[in-house]
């Protein structure tokens, strides 16, 4: 279907998500994952782990990532 699914995406390292769609970095930064010097999120962090550790709204983040599919 081309859509990003929560289970699939949350198991991926952040660097792999960005490699698949470079604009994902902007979506992640909008949710305060990476892009700032104050957090310790690395590219090797699995997205689901980072969401849990930093209290990110998973649905909002995945909706943003889904919005990139097909662009």
What is the secondary structure topology, with strand pairs?
Layout: H1 6-10, H2 14-20, H3 24-30, H4 47-54, H5 58-66
Describe this structure in words.
This protein has 71 residues and is mainly alpha-helical. The chain contains five helices and no strands. The protein has helices spanning 6-10, 14-20, 24-30, 47-54, 58-66. The longest helix is centred in the C-terminal third of the chain and has 9 residues, at 58-66.
Structure in a nutshell:
51% of the residues lie in helices and 0% in strands.
Average pLDDT number:
81
Rg measurement, Å: 11 Å
Strand content: under 5%
Please mark out the parts with pLDDT under 50 across 5 or more consecutive residues, or reply none: none
Distance between the termini: 14 Å
């Amino acid at each position: 279907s081309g859509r990003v699914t929560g289970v699939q995406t949350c198991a991926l390292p952040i660097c792999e998500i960005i490699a698949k769609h470079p604009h994902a970095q902007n979506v992640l930064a909008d949710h305060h994952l990476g892009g700032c010097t104050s957090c310790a999120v690395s590219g090797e962090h699995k997205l689901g782990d980072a969401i849990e550790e930093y209290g990110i709204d998973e649905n909002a983040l995945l909706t943003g990532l889904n919005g990139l599919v097909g662009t």
